[in-house]
Structures are given as structure tokens and as C-alpha cells.
């Protein structure tokens, strides 16, 4: 076996794997739009109500190591803004909700407008600034409709 072609093949495979991994990671913490026709009912999530302006809906599991940090960040954002509520739904024993919302990883965060319509979705650990920018977009839009 010739060593040079094997090294080249391994190098190409390594670069392709790194490229795919970086692309997936880059897209993971970006906001994504969601189905604009679905309205989330708070009772289904075990909540009494949604936020008057917006809701930060976090999906977690008991074994999620990043979920407590995201919980603190989302709670702080909600505490800093009037009318914004943070809800945390533990999916450990709620497979039905995980399937319905297509949650493939935790944490997953949805931003709902005041009517319960999903406006953005984050997979993984979103940065505070990105969440706040999306929340601004949602709440500014809610004042006009």
C-alpha cells in the first residue's frame, strides 16, 4: 500500500468531517423560524398562562448538563422584561411533547409571541444577546398587531 495516497485520503476525510461539524454547530445556535400556524396551549405544558408580551419556552431533561445554565439565562432575561415569562418543561417523562415539537436535543428554546405562536427556535445553548435580539423582534412585532 502506498503511504502518500492513504495520507491524502485521511486528510480529505478529516477536513470534510471538520467542515460538516463546524457547519452544524454554526447553525445550531442561530434562531430558526417555526410553523406560524401553531398556537401553543399553556395547559398542555403544565402552565397556567403564557407571558403577556412573549414567552421563553425551554425544553430540558434531567440529564442535560447545559440546561441549568440556559435556565438561568432565560430566567434573567424574563425577569428584566415586563410581560415576558420563562417556562421550563422537563421532557424526561413527556415523550409526547418532545415528539410534537420535534425536540432532538436539550436544551431547546422556543420564543412564543403573546398569542402563543412560535416565532423562533434555538437548539443547544443560545447566547443571551441572540435571544434578546429575537425577543425584541417578537415583542416589537406584537405591538403592531
Give the helices and strands, then pairings.
Layout: H1 3-28, E1 54-60, H2 67-80, E2 84-90, H3 95-100, E3 108-113, E4 118-123, H4 128-142
Parallel strand pairs: 1-2
Antiparallel strand pairs: 1-3, 3-4
Look at the helices and sheets and give the structural class: alpha+beta
- Following the backbone from N to C, one meets helices and strands in this order, namely HEHEHEEH
Oligomer: single chain
Taking Cα atoms only, what radius of gyration do you get, to the nearest Å? 19 Å
Largest sheet: 4 strands, mixed
Strand content: 15-25%
Pick out its properties.
4 helices; alpha+beta; 4 strands; 4-stranded mixed beta sheet; 145 residues
Task: Describe the protein in words.
This protein is of the alpha+beta class and 145 residues long. 42% of the residues lie in helices and 18% in strands. The chain has a four-stranded mixed sheet with strand order 2-1-3-4. The longest helix has 26 residues. It starts with a helix and ends with a helix.
Brief rundown of the structure:
This protein has 145 residues and is of the alpha+beta class. The protein is built from four helices and four strands, in the order H-E-H-E-H-E-E-H.
